[in-house]
Structures are given as structure tokens and as C-alpha cells.
Automatic annotation (TrEMBL):
Domain of life: Bacteria
A molecular-function term among this protein's GO annotations: oxidoreductase activity
Pfam assignment, any one: FMN_red
Keyword Flavoprotein: yes
Alphabetical keyword list: Flavoprotein, FMN
Domain NADPH-dependent FMN reductase-like intervals: 1-130
Lineage: Bacteria, Bacillati, Bacillota, Clostridia, Lachnospirales
InterPro entries named in the record: Flavoprotein-like_sf, FMN_Rdtase-like_dom, ISF_SsuE-like
Name of the protein in question: Flavodoxin family protein
PANTHER family for the chain: IRON-SULFUR FLAVOPROTEIN, NAD(P)H-DEPENDENT FMN-CONTAINING OXIDOREDUCTASE YWQN-RELATED
Length: 182
């Protein structure tokens, strides 16, 4: 299986990236091919809603770094969305990336993929990830993608190093999640 891991954080060596890399390591050990995208180094605008992508299959009218990511999306069998929790949902970077999926659709039908969600948050309360999980489930259902699960890592302090911490249990959990993908 070809797995695309997309990190929607702006911190290249932060907790979300570490979690995604642990998942990717497990997936590779399980025999999968992976591609890793760090959106913090990409310029991706939000969807303009112009509809150009739906007229004559011309592709997206927005010419930014998303153009180099569309082929990776098309080649993948599974898309793993990794994000820190920002204001109770996924990051704006990842949301802009997801909004641009519209250019992959034909008559509101999307190529079938499997998907998973990886998230980090400083808080570890019971309701911490509720809104983000709801969004992810609605997204997977709307795209008709097969949900392979999620790993939610609460209690991860953020900020600049050395404050940034990731409990080893979360890295191990994400690794085992990647390893479990068949």
C-alpha cells in the first residue's frame, strides 16, 4: 500500500511531526511505501470556490505548492492526516490542504482512499479532541474514504524546544498503529 502522511503543523521537529514519523516508521516496517509531507514548508492557499476544477477537468485554478502534491494524493492508497489541535480542531494549514481535495472530485465523487488521523494536544481532557474527531469522521464519510482509525496524543506540551515534550507512550502507540496497517 502507498501511504501519504501529511503533517499540518508549522513546527518541523514538533510533537505532531514526531507522532507522524513514528506512525510512518511502523508503516514502513509493515511493508508499505510512504511519502511524508510537512505542510509548514508549503504555500497552500485555501479553496477559492471558483469551480474551475469542475469545468472540463482543468484542475485547480490556484497555482501554489498544492500542484506538486496532487500527484502524491492521486498515487496514494491511504492518506494520514496529522495535526496539532488548534482552537479545538485541525490546523488551518491542514484544513486548506483538505479543502483543495475538491479538485480531485468528479461530480462530487472522490477517488477511494483509506484514511487515518493523528493528533497532538497540550490538554488531555476527555473532550479535548471531540470537535476535531467529529470533523474527521464527517470528512471521511463525505469523501467515502475508509476510516482506518486514529491516534490522539493528549498531554503534549508545545512551544519551542526544550519545552516541547512527547511522552514515549505516544510515540510507541503511533508506531504500533502504523505497524498494524495491513
Amino acid at each position: 500500500m502507498h501511504i501519504l502522511v501529511v503533517v499540518g503543523s508549522g513546527v518541523k521537529s514538533g510533537n505532531t511531526a514526531k507522532l507522524a514519523q513514528a506512525f510512518e516508521k511502523g508503516a514502513k516496517e509493515a511493508g508499505h511505501q510512504t511519502d511524508y509531507i510537512f505542510l509548514g514548508e508549503k504555500r497552500i492557499e485555501g479553496c477559492r470556490g471558483c469551480g474551475a476544477c469542475q469545468k472540463g477537468n482543468k484542475g485547480c485554478a490556484v497555482k501554489d505548492d498544492m500542484q506538486e502534491l496532487y500527484p502524491l494524493l492521486e498515487e496514494s492508497d491511504m492518506v494520514v492526516l496529522a495535526s496539532p489541535l488548534y482552537f479545538w480542531t485541525i490546523s488551518g494549514r491542514l484544513k486548506s490542504f483538505v479543502d483543495r481535495f475538491y479538485a480531485l472530485s468528479e461530480k462530487d465523487r472522490y477517488p477511494h482512499k483509506e484514511t487515518a488521523l493523528l493528533m497532538t494536544a497540550g490538554d488531555e481532557g476527555e473532550e479535548t479532541f471531540r470537535q476535531a474527531v467529529h470533523y474527521y469522521r464527517v470528512l471521511a464519510d463525505a469523501l467515502k474514504w475508509t476510516d482506518r482509525g486514529m491516534y490522539l496524543a493528549g498531554g503534549c506540551a508545545g512551544g519551542e524546544a526544550p519545552k516541547r515534550t512527547m511522552d514515549e507512550k505516544h510515540l510507541e502507540g503511533a508506531y504500533k498503529f502504523g505497524l498494524s496497517i495491513k
